[in-house]
Amino acid sequence: VTAPALAVHGGAGNVRRERLDAEQERTACAGLLRALHAGLDVLESDGSALDAVESAVSILEDEPFFNAGRGSVLNAEGRVSMDAAIAAGDERRAGAVAGVGRLCNPIRTARRVMEDTPHVLLIGEAAERFALGCGQRLAEPGHFVTAARRDQLERAQQRDRVSLDHDESSRGTVGAVARDSSGHLAAATSTGGMTNQLPGRVGDSPLVGAGTWADDSTCAVSATGHGEAFMRSGFAHEVDARLRLTDTNLVGACERALARVAELGSDGGCIAIAPAGPPVLAFNTSAMFRGWIDSRGEAQIRIFADDAARDADQR
Ligand code: ASP
């Protein structure tokens, strides 16, 4: 029997402490904690890593603070366009949706794409119709739009830039990785993309091998950051390849893959889990909203890089 392991993230970014007020910090930490507990409940009742990451991520999608589900960032037309992927390490199975605007929990549809279709990725309205056919929850586009995201779009448009959501307001993409007692690995990632992105833009999160990956023999990875650089680095697959083809460990593989993102002038982070050992939470930004279950079975939550010194002994 393998020791179960679990980690979650709520986005990496260059967040300044003073830009995150106490209320926001509480909301973020409470959301991450709820997600961890949901995942842990699954793992402790001998559920699968796949169920654990799906339920953890759907909780973060439901929390408007994060950039996924309701509370997703707005594109240049003021619309929400969400992407999500889930991956199972048993046979490198994967399912994803992209460019959806009406799915309450895109990660649950990604799971259905993986389980119920011969495909990996469905997009746009057709993906929404597929979700409807699976009996999933849909809402009108207005349901997903929050006042905070409207303000953020306005500010980005005044400055005429595409902003990584969390550079501005410190709230990001969400993800989870897990290992269950049978040794299976799984990863899930869900996002609204980047504020003021062009309509039709899809990021790294729903692309298997870029933002999301799972293979039982190497690792499960969920990434966050500047999606274009993660795609151009084949990020999650790069972590996998380093584990398969070199003698690097998981920490080294994540750091080397992030260094390749940095070579492209971008940054971000990831959470990852290997067939044995604690989860790795790596980032080259000033913060990554993150949480994991430590070796004593307790939930740990951190936001800023400065908190990292404490991480090592808590793992
Ligand atoms: N990687 C996401 C994207 O580019 C954004 C993020 O992680 O914040 O769509």
SSE inventory with pairings:
Blueprint (H helix, E strand, L loop, with lengths): L4 E9 L8 H23 L4 H14 L19 E7 L4 E8 L5 H11 L4 E3 H10 L13 H12 L6 H5 L4 E6 L5 E7 L20 E4 L3 E7 L1 H6 L2 H11 L4 H14 L4 E6 L6 E4 L3 E7 L5 E6 L3 H7 L1
Helix pairs in contact: 1-2, 2-3, 8-9
The structure holds aspartic acid (ASP).
The gist of it:
This protein has 315 residues and is α+β, with helices and mostly antiparallel strands. Helices cover 36% and strands 23% of the residues. Helix 2 packs antiparallel against helix 3.
Describe this structure in words.
It is a single chain. This protein has 315 residues and is an alpha+beta fold. It has 10 helices and 12 strands. The strands form 2 sheets. Strands 4-3-2-6-5-1-11-12 form an 8-stranded mixed sheet, with helices on both faces. A 4-stranded antiparallel sheet has the order 7-8-9-10. The chain is globular. 58% of the residues are buried. Aspartic acid is lined by residues 11, 164-166, 172-173, 191, 193-194, 203-205, 211, 224-225, 227.
Assign the structural class, choosing from mainly alpha, mainly beta, alpha/beta, alpha+beta, or little secondary structure: alpha+beta
Which residues form runs of ≥5 with pLDDT under 50? none
What is the overall silhouette?
globular
Number of β-strand runs = 12
What is the arithmetic mean of pLDDT? 94
The number of helical segments is: 10
Helix content: 25-40%
- Strand-residue proportion: 15-25%
Radius of gyration: 17 Å
Largest sheet: 8 strands, mixed
List cofactors, ions and other ligands: aspartic acid
Q: What's the N-to-C terminus distance?
A: 20 Å
Spatial order of the strands forming the largest sheet: 4-3-2-6-5-1-11-12
- Give the ordered list of helices and strands: EHHEEHEHHHEEEEHHHEEEEH
